[in-house]
Write a structure and sequence with these properties.
This protein is mainly beta. It has one domain (2-111): Rieske [2Fe-2S] iron-sulphur domain (Rieske Iron-sulfur Protein). 0% of the residues lie in helices and 31% in strands. A hairpin with a 6-residue loop joins strand 5 and strand 6 (73-75). The protein is globular and about 40 Å long. The two termini are 26 Å apart.
């Protein structure tokens, strides 16, 4: 399932995607240090969407993913909550693949799989 071309996601940026055309972003992709990190767009605290507006997933410093609902902070590379009511929990990581032509793809089954506890 295509998300974007890698050139559409600048270094240090985060972007939301709606690959299943549900009318809201269900996937977050962050590009940091040349690597892409993808997560389900749901805070582990209550399952609420993470952004307060389109593509506003990072804190002001750009070094953490932030949940707009209650300010929880998550490491970009691991999804681990380092501050907030879900301390120690993680965002649900989603496997993505960058194809040789630069297309960023997500396996459709990744959206229905649960993370093992």
């Amino acid at each position: 399932m295509r998300l974007c071309h890698i050139d559409e996601l600048p270094e240090g940026a985060a972007r939301g995607f709606d690959p299943q055309r549900q009318g809201h972003d269900t996937v977050i992709v962050v590009r940091r240090g040349g690597a892409l990190h993808a997560y389900a767009n749901a805070c582990p605290h209550y399952g609420t969407p993470m952004a307060w507006r389109k593509d506003a997933y990072l804190n002001a410093a750009g070094d953490r993913i932030v949940c707009a609902a209650h300010g929880a902070l998550f490491e970009i590379d691991t999804g681990l909550c380092t501050l907030g009511p879900c301390l120690g929990d993680r965002l649900r990581a989603l496997p993505i693949h960058v194809q040789p032509d630069g297309e960023v793809r997500l396996n459709p089954s990744a959206l229905t799989q649960e993370t093992p506890s």
